[in-house]
Amino acid sequence: MGEEDGEEERLTINEGNAMEKKGRKEGLWELASAPMNWIRMLSEEMHWSFVMGVVFVYGINQGLGGGLSRVGTKYYWKDVQKVQPSESQVYSGITSIPWIVKPLWGLLTDVVPIAGYRRRPYFILAGLLGVIAMISLSLNRELPVVFALLFLTLGSTSVAIADVAIDACVAQNSITHPSLAADMISLCGFSSSIGALIGFSISGFLVHLIGPKGVFGVLSIPAGLVFVVGVLFNEPYMPNFIYKEVYQKLLDASKAMLTTLKSPFVWRPCMYMYVSLALSLNIQEGMFYWYTDKKAGPGFSQENIGFMFSIGSVGSLLGVILFQNVLKDHPFRRLLFWTQLLYGISGMLDLMLVLRLNLKFGMPDYFFVVIDEAVSQMINRLKWMPLLVLTSKLCPPGIEGTFFALLMSIDNFGLLTASWGGGFLLHILNVTRTHFDSLWLAVFIRNVLRVVPLVLLFLVPNSDPSSSVLPADMLKTNVDAETAEANNIELAALVENTT
Questions:
Q1: Which residues of the chain have pLDDT under 50?
Q2: Is the model's pTM score more than 0.85?
Q3: What residue ranges define each of the domains in the chain, with the CATH number in brackets?
Q4: Which spans are transmembrane here (predicted)?
């Protein structure tokens, strides 16, 4: 009797173990298949071409392509065009100008349909511009600096137009499918982050194998995929559009934006955002030339540079996660105070590196630079996220999208000012391709200027992100649903940067 009971107990235990293993396998399968099921759900709800557009534009064109472009462009100016660091810094600012005029692209995609479509022609145009620009850079052996700058700016224009067009599609679907708005933004952010991580990870190897010009040739593929989006994108046809109304619509939108900008509730935070970005001088080109110099600097290889930037993108992603889970409910003024202060302090890591203090502490250059890049990018993202949230809070109903694009353009103009200011600083300190004696001073001046905006924090509202920044009278709107939908073009930009 005891033996039978023991046998039954063993059978019960074996059955329990088998069920546990089966449940574990099913749990792992559900976890592995969850992303695909999620993407399938979005495709069924909003059409597969929309999901394809987000992945191609955010993930491949901006994310992966952005990583390849950043590293490839740095080596192109340094090794192919052989320009000075200050010149390269100014040129990088010029290529960002298409992002400053994003409201123009947004207004065009909203109120000027082409051949009966509002989005598809702009995807096609963006793809063509990108392919032409990248192939031209790749195939021309001795391209003058002016034409190289022109093609790089044309490529930047291609990415900016595609960005605005897909933002508009995300915003429209957020209106028609409000319950899936968070899923769409998550898809945008996930695609961009993974694409950037892959792009930076392989950028150094590609530059080493095929050179900067070869990388530009590879970049024609993401641009071509944007063209494919324009061909396959599912969009309703709009026949008999009255083009005579375009001017009036543009005029009405411009007047509404100008009236809003005059409000102290809007221009005061805008002033702080511009100054905080403009005074954070960008001297990264000088640092890059020093990174790759074998005599004065560490002499990093292309693979080292690509890996370093990929770790920086991981730090940036950690910053987003930290903000989302810990810091998003803190008041703007307090959060911006600490992030701006930490931003200035983190810059001292660059100063330690340039002065080679890390070697005195027994820390190898590469190890120290990787830590520096991760920490700097994480803090930079923590500083950027509350500014994005504050920007979204400054947009009145009815012109949310277009006005958000305008405010983002002000921020981008601040970044342009920082880039040109950094180039001027490198020039007056005589930081050249081979002379880096004053680079430490440029880093120190940059770090000091980073904390200067703290004296202007009184311009920022002391409310928390869950509260309204605008007064009640500005939150009232008589704009009809169609106009509101047409103007919502930049909601998804909250998950971007990002370059």
A1: 477-499
A2: no
A3: 45-495 (1.20.1250.20)
A4: 46-68, 122-139, 145-166, 187-210, 216-234, 271-292, 304-323, 335-355, 403-426, 438-460
